[in-house]
Amino acid sequence: DHTNADTLRTPIVAVLGHVDHGKTSLLDTIRGSAVSEGEAGAITQHIGATDIPLDTISEMAGELIDPSDFDLPGLLFIDTPGHHSFSTLRARGGALADIAVLVVDVNDGFQPQTEEAIDILRRTGTPFVVAANKVDTTPGWNPQDGQPIQRSLEAQSERAESMLNENLYEIIGQLSDAGFSADLYWRVQDFQKNIGVVPLSALTGEGVPDLLTVLMGLSQRFMKEEMAIDVQGAGEGTVLEVKDERGFGATIDTVVYDGVIRNGDTIVVGGQNEPIVTEVRALLRPRALEEIRTEKKFEKVAEIGAAAGVKIAAPELDQAMAGAPVRVVRDRPLEDVIAEVKAELAEIEVDTAEDGVVVKADTLGSLEAMANALREAEVPILRAEVGDIAPRDIAVAETANQDEHKAILGFNVDLLANAESELENADMKLFTDEVIYQLIEDYETYVEERER
Ligand code: GTP
Ligand code: MG
């Protein structure tokens, strides 16, 4: 139902992987090289995202890219901090990211959060490439700053190259164990069938031109149709995080993936209890090139179009949920938009049983991922909610019929201060972790030990 206002939007690229494998460094390098290419003005820093335009990508990729091969405007990168679940990134029941970069430390190979990311990529059908990072740590490495990886390999000793290859084939084997046929990206003929592995270093920048080239190529070839949007249409987005901001109260860091959102717009946002209907008071963007995590000063903008990251300030947002939909009400009845948001939330609603464990998670997406994993493990759920662990949750967990179900499984959540004292005398067990399968494994071990 797109009109002739159709334009191609920027593909959304999620960068994910295990803690410390180099996600943020990779983005810093992409930003940094972009600046050194003299294109500083062209990069736009968003809330939780960085927009790199095609011109800049093409300068960085040098001989690898001919910009006239592309008509997508560039790439919008989203960093996912190690403690933050990639599963937050959902949109219209699917994945918010159009494409993903799975960062794997060449020395460490697959780690728990790598496995978790792979599971979610598989479930959401998100195309991805693997960035085999930190090639510069190979003993005897001869760094070739910012060069394409083949150039860099030519400069390496046979010994260094074969040591790197050993690690790369280890990763390719791990991908195969996870059910993905993969190869070094220059050997991949069909990127829909095979996962491309790009050896690179976020530290020296070698191989980064290759990564950008592969990402542009993949987006252009396989996603062009999905990128066609009505730039004047009602904005649609996903809440990444709910944050208190001085002078603004509760705000939502949002990725807009369709249409445009304007100051003063009425929006509907998924909330803890019911959809929140409110009016945009301010649309905030970080000042140019400042790091979002340390950014304190924002710039007010009148409107922002997809794809983009923006902080939305509006009344009543304290009940908003990470992972929930955001919809602009424009040209159609408010009731319809509320119904749409409700329908989307209902999709994520977890099936609960008469008896079972209590589940708490940081975002809607991670709650859904927890529910899926528990269903597979045949662990019933009594109650599942987004949010930190409160005294009420402890009380609910204690009401479970079977003793083994008197438990709270908390994923990426904290124990609220007033719940701490209650926990001491509580007739239930608390499990928390930042890795879903670890959390479930701990619970299962506990159940097994009880039965002995
Ligand atoms: P979380 O956000 O905590 O999950 O970590 P991350 O994946 O963003 O990792 P980050 O970029 O913070 O890097 C972790 C550490 O690895 C830092 O000390 C980096 O300097 C180092 N590092 C990242 N990439 C490279 C690389 O290519 N080579 C070398 N030698 N070190 C790297
Ligand atoms: Mg990071």
From TrEMBL:
Residues holding GTP: 17-24, 79-83, 133-136
Positions in coiled-coil regions: none
Domain Tr-type G as annotated: residue spans: 8-224
An annotated Gene Ontology molecular function: translation initiation factor activity
UniProt keywords, alphabetically: GTP-binding, Initiation factor, Nucleotide-binding, Protein biosynthesis
Family classification: Belongs to the TRAFAC class translation factor GTPase superfamily. Classic translation factor GTPase family. IF-2 subfamily.
Function: Function in general translation initiation by promoting the binding of the formylmethionine-tRNA to ribosomes. Seems to function along with eIF-2.
Protein name: Probable translation initiation factor IF-2
The species this protein was found in: Halorubrum pallidum
Residue span relative to the full protein: 3 to 454 of 597
